[in-house]
Amino acid sequence: MNDPQKKIYFASDQHFGIPDANRSKLREKKFISWLDEIKADAEAIFLLGDLFDFWFEYKTVVPRGFVRVLGKIAELRDSGIPIYFFVGNHDLWMMDYFEKELDIPVYHQPKEFEFGGKKFLIGHGDGLGPGDKGYKRMKKVFSHPLSKWFYRWLHPDIGVKIAQYLSTKNKLISGQEDIKFLGEENEWLAQYAKRKLEKKHYDYFLFGHRHLPMEIEVGKDSIYINTGDWISHYTYAVFDGSELSLKKYR
Predict the structure, then answer these.
(1) pTM confidence score
(2) Structural domain span for residue 167
(3) What's 163's domain CATH number?
(4) Which of 34, 120, 163, 206 is most buried by a 10 A CB count?
(5) Going along 63-136, which residue ranges are E strands?
(6) How many domains does the chain divide into?
């Protein structure tokens, strides 16, 4: 970080689009207000996945809605603030729209970064760590190029309806049954972090997906932070150049 007054912000799991258009729009406005507040001192913004409850990029079509959020993100990016996007399990089928239209890099796997001399491993968090075999099998099927090719041939009105139904009804996709704290020793992303530390040191592990804001010490001078969500918690993480902390937007 070059400017000691600047900060790096992290947020995830907005799931815009649910439970319906009107209530989603209220949450979008709250998220946009947060973006407006942080733009004055943001050196970079990391969006850690599931910005939308469903997103699929056809070659010439993108899902309807989310104009305010996309417009605000475009404004911040055009102002010179770097923005990074990590694909989640609900925007699994994101391709190059963000990269071409918004100049925002898109990552499908966790990625290492270094800020202020601290090493970060950042990602969405789905499919990592032990267990969750049902979801891991389903993700392989959904992310297979043949699956995407077949789905693209559905009319968007049909494809989006099917995806919205599965997003809320299929527990493997929605993850509703997983939104409960399992205890520090049983949190599978914390276990994943500990395994990674066996090979390399990281100061911070940053993930979303769990919808629970949490901070767990996973090793000597190493912390796992989950950014929570913007459905129930409205939480985010911020790095001020020396420390990473969880915050709640009010």
Answers:
(1) 0.87
(2) 7-248
(3) 3.60.21.10
(4) 206
(5) 83-86, 106-107, 111-115, 118-122
(6) 1
